Amino acid sequence: MKGKLLGLILLSLLAATPVLAESGGGSYTPGASGLTLPSLSLSFANSQKPGDMVSVLRIIMMLTVLSLAPAILIMMTSFTRIVVVLSFLRQALGTQQMPPNQLIVGLSLFLSFFVMAPTWKAISSNAVEPYLAEKIDQKMAYERAEAPLREFMFSQTREKDLELFLSLSKEAKPNTREEVPTYVLVPAFVISELKTAFQIGFMLYLPFIVLDMIVASVLMAMGMMMLPPVVISLPFKLLLFVLVDGWELVVGSLVKSFG
């Protein structure tokens, strides 16, 4: 998919090269380069055909799904656990807004791409490429694309959380995983991810809390009760985190937790 995207970008640049060359050499006459651009027009008119209304409703539904697609994909991937753990790490360090939110979200996205790479490859080879080659229809492509995502979510979802949402949905108890509806699996997966992230966050807090307590005890023994312990403990937290190579430990543990 990355290769196709880069290929489209290169083709766009090559197509724009003649126009740029002509505009740099002098006056530009519209249409002289022979390059035609497609136009798009939307209009609303009265129609007596029910099929026209169905087409409009399909377009509206498609645009709605596309607008919600990023949020849907985020909730169905490893992004939730990673971003929560990194947020806990920043709070445990006490560095306020460092690293900034944009950096945490960006790192979480790329780590999610790394963790989900086998799933994306399976979706691309089993669903996207056959569909683009017109070997399968849209329904079959959707089913094939859904299967790797469901397999990933099942591997990270606790049975207790899955049973909770099955009971809340009042669905009959399924005999196999294939019988579990996706709308039941997704919230169970999210709840499981949040619990795992909170457990990892608790383990991250422990060494920094101990360091805060030691610094506070030393300051009280010295009679410096007016000095906030956070001011003194923050440099030691950063030093400890750097000495143990904290980023490697945290990121490595996060990635291995999805194994």
Give the C-alpha Rg: 27 Å
Number of strands: 0
Into which percentage range does the β-strand content fall?
A: under 5%
Biggest sheet overview: none
Q: Distance N terminus to C terminus?
A: 24 Å
Précis, in short:
It is built from ten helices and no strands. It is mainly α.
What does this structure look like?
- The structure is a single chain.
- By secondary structure, the protein is mostly helical.
- The longest helix has 40 residues, at 182-221.
- Helices cover 74% and strands 0% of the residues.
What tags apply to this protein structure?
mainly alpha, disordered N terminus
Topology:
Blueprint: H1 2-25, H2 50-75, H3 79-93, H4 101-115, H5 117-132, H6 138-156, H7 159-169, H8 182-221, H9 229-243, H10 246-256
